[in-house]
Amino acid sequence: MAAPSHALPFLSPAGTASSVRAIPRRRAAHLRCAAAAGQAGFFTRLGRLIKEKAKSDVEKLFSGFSKTRENLSVVDELLTYWNLADTDRVLDELEEALLVSDFGPKISFRIVDTLREEIRDGKLKSGAEIKAALKRCILELLTSKGGNSELNLGFRKPSVIMIVGVNGGGKTTSLGKLAHRFKNEGVKVLMAAGDTFRAAARDQLEVWAERTGSEIVIDNDKKAQPPAVLSQAVKRGKREGFDVVLCDTSGRLHTNYGLMEELVTCKKVLAKALPGAPNEILLVLDGTTGLNMLQQAREFNDVVGVTGFILTKLDGTARGGCVVSVVDELGIPVKFVGVGEGVEDLQPFDAEAFVEAIFP
Questions:
Q1: Boundaries of each SRP54-type proteins GTP-binding domain copy (predicted)?
Q2: Would the pLDDT of 28 be above 50?
Q3: Complete edge-to-edge strand list for the sheet that includes strand 334-338
Q4: pLDDT tens per residue across span 190-212
Q5: Which of 58, 92, 165, 225 has the most other CB atoms within 10 Å of its CB?
Q6: What's the mean pLDDT when you consider all of the chain?
Q7: Does residue 216 have a pLDDT over 50?
């Protein structure tokens, strides 16, 4: 008896029967796993590469945090001629400098208490040692509470990133600058103009798409709702092999319950279009608002589960201590900081570079 054939029939374009050798199930499964592993490796390398480039951007961080360095310049004045008898006075003034720089009462008190204890135990014996310990405390807060600040882009294409925030915080601009960074790494980017309530936002995103060489999905009928636009974009991203889909959303006050609930719908629609999406939900926070941004962050996180922050407008006028306050309060990492108006001025956040940038 002849061995059973493993060829499967199919119809050629002419409609005649032909055959193609079937791929054994085990081999097909292996190929699928290999493809998934390749995509995962691509996104892991991409996230790491973007993060590592923060090391080369320290000079822009320095210019962005000039106001914070000015407020903290008193630290060197206090510690240059420090002696043990002046400990209480020096620490009180140090605490005030941290408060002025928007570190917040809880963090400022905690840092100063740690320094006081280490001085009392004889671990810190000079002004230089106290300053080094101060910087170490801030770095430990950022790294222990903030976790990994690399982008988590998932394991399959397209990776989906959803940008949320209040009006005027810099959402659309941040999305455009993020697209620029991706494009510089050879990534195929699709933008979704999910801010359908503001025609200017759509127009602005179209400019960014042209500027960065990205594709864009917009509401052609002018009546589409944000969830529909985002769903369409992700489906196109799957169909046409895009690497990353960047989803803009309408700005909203964190106190507007109805609009906040719409974000939940957007998130569900993305997950339905692509299981596991969105890979990141990045909340844009205006750095000039200082500690007032904390309430916004709490509300957005409660509603949609924020995975990372983009702090914008840290252009020399903001007080950088708010970065530490946000991370300490919510345990969510800062992933990018905006330190100017230029296309390159959305910088990957690096805790060590940040600490060096805020001290003179």
A1: 333-346
A2: no
A3: 215-217, 189-192, 244-247, 159-165, 280-286, 308-312, 334-338, 346-348
A4: 999 998 877 778 889 999 999 99
A5: 165
A6: 82
A7: yes
Strand pairing category for 308-312 and 159-165? unpaired
Q: For residue 112, how many C-alpha atoms fall within 13 Å in the half-sphere facing its CB?
A: 21
Q: Which two tokens stand for residue 128?
A: 């230089």
* Number of Cα atoms under 13 Å in the Cβ half of residue 184: 11
The DSSP code sequence of 270-302 is: HHHHSTT--SEEEEEEEGGGGGGHHHHHHHHHH
> What percentage of the chain's residues is helix, strand, coil (to nearest 5)?
55, 15, 30
Torsion angle of the four alpha carbons 167, 170, 174, 175, in this order, in degrees rounded to the nearest 10: 20
CA 45 to chain centre: 16
CB 153: neighbour CB atoms within 10 A?
26
Burial class (CB in 10 A: 0-12, 13-18, 19+), 273: buried
Structure tokens at 62: 């320095």
pLDDT computed for residue 32 by the predictor = 46
